[in-house]
Amino acid sequence: MADSKELGSASRRISVVTNHLIPIGFNPTRVDSVELCSASSIDDSFHKVHGEVPTHEVVWKKAEFFGDGDNKEFVDIIYEKALDEGIAKITINRPERRNAFRPQTVKELMRAFNDARDDSSVGVIILTGKGTKAFCSGGDQALRTQDGYADPNDVGRLNVLDLQVQIRRLPKPVIAMVAGYAVGGGHILHMVCDLTIAADNAVFGQTGPKVGSFDAGYGSSIMSRLVGPKKAREMWFMTRFYTASEAEKMGLINTVVPLEMLEKETVKWCREILRNSPTAIRVLKAALNAVDDGHAGLQGLGGDATLLFYGTEEAIEGRTAYMQRRPPDFSKFPRRP
Ligand SMILES: CC(C)(COP(=O)(O)OP(=O)(O)OC[C@H]1O[C@@H](n2cnc3c(N)ncnc32)[C@H](O)[C@@H]1OP(=O)(O)O)[C@@H](O)C(=O)NCCC(=O)NCCSC(=O)CCC(=O)c1ccccc1C(=O)O
Question: Which ranges of the sequence are coiled-coil (predicted)?
């Protein structure tokens, strides 16, 4: 009860920021004094409490696997972690093909993302491409067959679709760090990431209809959400390329920085996110994806609720009663209004 009184008094001293949305459940009649602040003074007071975001050089180390028991070396990607920071970095390493992916690239990406998901010391994951010319130019057209993309001596597949789902479902933020071309299936990869930080040399666009391909899944639906249905049609029907600053205006990316600042800025965003509650971020990611991901989205969000519920005495009573072969006693738990 002491906690809820403290919370109550805190809510009565709340500051209201002009031009900001008022949270659901905010009850103006319970506010004793309303202090109107500009966004910049809010920023200042936040910095006083939280301190500046550190800007020191990040130190990457080749990632030790967290526990998938597979020690196969990567060929098509580089997987690094800045462990004392909680950041993992996954780099598509086929610069001679403008970081086009082949099935093996996708398999390695999925393995690295899986490891970063399982490693509880990792809080944010960066996805990028080697070099400055391309983030990713999509599927490797030289390996395209009638059955999808096929590595030598393997069957054809479109396994990048599984990777897209994995990134959406991953309960940690994934940031696309884009220098150069993010086109075709590479453009879709940046769109399924949670945030995109672009260098000023970045170029965005779809090429599918030019090369006899299309993505009628996330590549269409998420794009339409991001840039609106008309602009999405323009991007797909015309196959035009867009500069970083055009992409920023379209709402396709979060920010543009000079190429030489790209990693520094991306790491800064990671550090800023990492100061916040991982559970809040996990549930927010699930919530922000839930509608677009339909039943699978609801399942993700619902799973988070179950995970949180398992930590409560109420849930523990249910499990304990079952294990002790007695009826559960839920009478002491509140039926909250
Ligand atoms: C990216 C470019 C605009 C870069 O142009 P530039 O800087 O001038 O370099 P180039 O000289 O063109 O390229 C250098 C070198 O790289 C090779 N290369 C580049 N991209 C690819 C590629 N995608 N596949 C194979 N090889 C590539 C290029 O041939 C050069 O090789 P050399 O031997 O040195 O000549 C430009 O390169 C470009 O336009 N690239 C092609 C972009 C493209 O059309 N990509 C494919 C789009 S379709 C797709 O990605 C489908 C993917 C998929 O799997 C999928 C399928 C179904 C549903 C969903 C998906 C999905 O991804 O979501």
Answer: none
Residue 201 contacts residue 215 (beta carbons within 8 Å):
no
- Could you tell me the residue ranges of all domains in the chain? 2-50, 61-276, 279-323
Pair of tokens at residue 223: 């794009």
- Taking the centre of ligand 1 as the mean of its atom positions, its distance from the CA of residue 254, in whole angstroms, is 24
Measured CA to CA, the distance from residue 262 to residue 264 in angstroms comes to 6
Q: How many residues does the chain have?
A: 337
The best mutation among 93, 97, 98, 239 to test binding of ligand 1, ranked by most ligand atoms within 8 Å of the C-beta, falls on 98
Q: To the nearest 10°, the Cα dihedral for 72, 78, 79, 83?
A: 130
* Residue range 279-323, CATH number: 1.10.12.10
Instruction: Look at domain 61-276 and name its CATH class.
Output: alpha beta
**β-bridge mates for residue 255, sequence order:** 197
Encoded tokens for 5: 């009184």
Read off φ and ψ for residue 87, nearest 5 degrees. Answer: -115, 135
Cα separation, 77 vs 75, in Å, equals 6
For ligand 1, the distance from its centroid to the CA atom of residue 260, given in whole angstroms, is 24
Pairing of strands 174-178, 148-149: unpaired
- For residues 262 and 260, what is the distance between their CA atoms, to the nearest angstrom? 6
Residues with CB under 6 A from ligand 1: 97-98, 100, 133-134, 137-142, 149, 158, 160-161, 181, 183-185, 188, 207-208, 211, 213, 215, 219
pLDDT by residue for the chain (337 residues), tens digit each? 333 333 333 333 333 333 333 333 333 333 334 344 444 555 566 566 778 888 898 999 888 776 666 668 999 999 999 978 999 999 999 999 999 999 999 999 999 999 999 999 999 999 999 999 999 999 999 999 998 899 888 888 889 999 999 999 999 999 999 999 999 999 999 999 999 999 999 999 999 999 999 999 999 999 999 999 999 999 999 999 999 999 999 999 999 999 999 999 999 999 999 999 999 999 999 999 999 999 999 999 999 999 999 999 999 999 999 999 999 999 999 999 9
